[in-house]
Automatic annotation (TrEMBL):
Keywords: Membrane, Transmembrane, Transmembrane helix. The lineage of its organism: Bacteria, Bacillati, Actinomycetota, Actinomycetes, Micrococcales. The chain crosses the membrane at residues 20-41. It comes from the Bacteria. The keyword Membrane applies. This is 4-hydroxybenzoate polyprenyltransferase.
Length: 66
């Protein structure tokens, strides 16, 4: 017998505290919540175009070559 077979023969069945599909539901909820967070940051850069233009004008604007 290999070492792995001996170890596996000694391991008892682990009783999970919840049914297995619940773990999938938990993962789905977590990924959904993270997706909402990422989605909430969409188009953030262009929300304040006037402020960005005023900053660029005050600080020399966009320089060619940089």
């Amino acid at each position: 017998m290999s070492f792995l077979n001996v170890v596996l023969a000694q391991v008892e069945t682990v009783a999970l505290p919840m049914p297995t599909f619940v773990y999938g539901l938990i993962a789905l909820v977590i990924f959904g919540a993270l997706g909402v967070v990422v989605w909430s940051y969409r188009d953030v850069a262009s929300r304040h175009q006037a402020k960005a233009k005023a900053y660029a004008d005050a600080h020399g604007g966009a320089r060619a070559g940089h």
